[in-house]
Amino acid sequence: MLSGRLGLEKARIPHADRHGLVWLDRGRLEVEDGCLRFVTAGGGELAAGDYQIPHQAVSIILLGPGSSVTHDALRLLARHGCALAAIGQGAVRFYTAPPLMPDSSALARAQVTLWADPKTRMEVARAMYAMRFGEIVRTRDIEVLRGQEGARIKRSYQLAAERYGIPWRGRSYDRADPEAGDEANQAINHAATAMTAAASVAVAAVGAIPQLGFVHEDSGQSFVLDIADLYRHDITLDIAFGAVKEAEKSGDPLERLTRQRAAKLFRQRGVIPSMIDRIKTLLGLGAETEEIA
C-alpha cells in the first residue's frame, strides 16, 4: 500500500519550484518499484529505452501519440500533484478529458459572482449549513458559523458512535501521522478522503471552480471540501463507524472496508448526483438559499 493513501498530504515540491513539463511519446507510462517509468521502443522524439520520470519535480507530463498509461501511473501522478495531458503530435491538439472543459461558463460565473461579494458569500455558507443540519442560522459572521458547525459535528460523532456501539474518545487527527489515531478516527479519515473524491467528481462534472470555497478558504480544493462537508455529519460518519463495526467482526483491513463501504453507499444513496443537484441549487441561489435570506 502506498503510504499517504489517506490523501491528505500535499504535493512534496511546490509547483513554483518545479521544472515545468516533460514530453513523452510512443511508449508506455507505468510504475515500477514505486517509480514512474516510461518505456519506449523509439520512433518518436525519444530514443529507445527505459526512462525514469522525475514526477515530483515537474508540473505536467505531455503524453504524445502512440502512448499508453497504467492506472498505477495515474494514481502516482495524482498523489504528487503532477498533471497528465494527452496531446497530438507537437501539442497541436489537446485530447485529455480531465479537467473537464464545460460547454458553458454560466455556473462558474455564478460561483465567482457569489464568492466575490462578502454578503452573498456568507449567504451561500449559511445555505450550506441549512442543507447539512436542517437549521436556519441567523448569524452572518463566518467564524460564529464555523463554531456552531464544530459543536454540531462533535455531537454527530458521539451519536454515530453510540448508534454503532463503537467506543468514542473524541476526534483526534495528527496531519503528520494520520494513522496514529484509534480505529474510529482512522476510519473517519478514510471516509472523508472518499467523500472528498466524490465531491471532486461532482465539482468537475458541473464545471465549478474548486479553489473558490464559501466556508473553506485556503485549500486549492476549498469548494470541493465545502461540498464534501454537506455529507460529513451523516453519510461520512455512517461509512466510517459502519466500517469499524465490520472490521471488528471480520478482522479485514480497515482502510479497505471503509473504501468498499463508501463505494456501496455512494451508489445506494446517489451521493454524486445529489452533490451535483446541491451545487446547482447553491450557485443558482435556488429556493433553499432564498429561504435563509
From TrEMBL:
Q: Per UniProt, where does Mn(2+) bind?
A: E149, H216, D229
Q: Please verify whether the record's keywords include Signal.
A: no
Metal-binding among keywords: yes
Q: Which key words tag this protein in UniProt?
A: Antiviral defense, DNA-binding, Endonuclease, Hydrolase, Magnesium, Manganese, Metal-binding, Nuclease
One example of the protein's molecular function in GO is: metal ion binding
Q: What cofactor does its activity depend on?
A: Mg(2+); Mn(2+)
Q: Which Pfam families match?
A: Cas_Cas1
Could you state one GO biological process linked to this protein? defense response to virus
EC no. given is 3.1.-.-
Family named by the database record: Belongs to the CRISPR-associated endonuclease Cas1 family.
Self-association or partners: how does it assemble? Homodimer, forms a heterotetramer with a Cas2 homodimer.
Q: What does this protein do?
A: CRISPR (clustered regularly interspaced short palindromic repeat), is an adaptive immune system that provides protection against mobile genetic elements (viruses, transposable elements and conjugative plasmids). CRISPR clusters contain spacers, sequences complementary to antecedent mobile elements, and target invading nucleic acids. CRISPR clusters are transcribed and processed into CRISPR RNA (crRNA). Acts as a dsDNA endonuclease. Involved in the integration of spacer DNA into the CRISPR cassette.
Q: What is this protein called?
A: CRISPR-associated endonuclease Cas1
Species whose genome carries this gene: Rhodospirillum rubrum (strain ATCC 11170 / ATH 1.1.1 / DSM 467 / LMG 4362 / NCIMB 8255 / S1)
Taxonomic path = Bacteria, Pseudomonadati, Pseudomonadota, Alphaproteobacteria, Rhodospirillales
Q: Which gene encodes it?
A: cas1
